[in-house]
Design goal:
With 289 residues, this protein is α+β, with helices and mostly antiparallel strands. It has 4 helices and 13 strands. A hairpin with a 2-residue loop joins strand 6 and strand 7.
Length: 289
């Protein structure tokens, strides 16, 4: 058996340990360059090699998958990075504290919805990998085990630095992950607009543990607010109460952040389609915190 050669990084630093990882398949997507990939990913096909067909048995029992890819075009010498797509002025941070594709071992880990299977091909959504990316592994996602709603993370780029479209896309992703198809209901969309306006007004990340919220509903609106803020009854950041006749009372939410507190009340019958118009859909009151 031939002796394996010592692999090296791009900067020619020899590895001290050797192990092998081989592709089980490849990604097929419309994205040829990193600039083309939307912030929240897009549709793709995971095409597995025939010798791994048996490994797909039972995969249809999972609605979501953990996809591991090898970022073959990544710069393996980089140890600090910033989110260039969102905020090029954000401070540099170590790659191990970020989701940057540039890292010593550029292995990606993405949770994606499984839309369907056709033989060796898996159709997925929200994948942020280039066409031709080697697949390292696929695992079923366990909502109880893998979902950590209480987790906290300080973004490299503050939401206030995001363009409207990017901020809304990230919020929509949070809602869909938490609520599934219910996130598309009109009431949930109203709460999305409220959270967007509150973020812009308070100039803060609504997941900040010091932010407290309240809402006058006990339905999908409450769940949407939880999804967008991380607030819950257990961490005492959320207060929800049901109106006696909710159909006659406008949707209302309050956001408290330090010395600032705002109350947003729906003032129109229909939510405007553009985020730039959302502030006009509410009566906004500053109240004592």
């Amino acid at each position: 058996m031939p002796t394996p050669t010592t692999p090296t990084f791009r900067n020619e630093t020899p590895m001290t340990e050797i192990f092998s990882v081989f592709p089980i398949g490849h990604v097929r997507s419309a994205f040829k360059t990193r600039k083309e990939i939307p912030l929240t990913g897009g549709p793709a096909t995971l095409e597995l090699k025939p010798e791994f067909a048996e490994g797909l048995d039972g995969l249809e029992n999972s609605s979501h998958l953990l996809v591991m890819g090898f970022l073959h075009q990544a710069d393996r010498k980089v140890l600090k990075s910033r989110p260039m797509k969102v905020d090029p002025t954000a401070p540099l941070r170590g790659v191990f504290s970020t989701r940057s594709p540039a890292r010593p071992n550029p292995i990606s880990l993405t949770v994606v919805p499984l839309l369907g299977r056709n033989g060796l091909c898996l159709e997925v959504e929200n994948l942020d990998l280039l066409d031709g990316t080697p697949l390292v592994d696929i695992k079923s996602y366990s909502p109880g085990w893998d979902g950590v709603f209480c987790a906290q993370h300080k973004h490299r780029a503050e939401p206030t630095a995001m363009e409207d479209a990017h901020l809304v896309a990230c919020m929509e992703r949070d809602m869909a992950n938490f609520m599934g198809s219910t996130a598309a209901k009109p009431t949930a969309r109203w709460v999305l607009a409220m959270a967007f306006v509150a973020t812009r007004f308070l100039k803060a990340d609504l997941r900040d543990p010091s932010i407290h919220v309240s809402i006058n509903r006990m339905d999908e609106a409450t769940e949407a607010l939880m999804a967008l803020t991380g607030a819950a009854f257990s961490n005492r950041r959320l207060l929800a109460y049901a109106e006696t006749q909710p159909e006659t009372q406008p949707l209302q939410a309050q956001f408290k952040y330090g010395a600032q507190s705002i109350c947003l009340r729906a003032s129109t019958s229909a939510l405007p389609p553009s985020p730039s118009q959302w502030p006009k859909a509410f009566t906004l009151e500053e109240t004592p915190a």
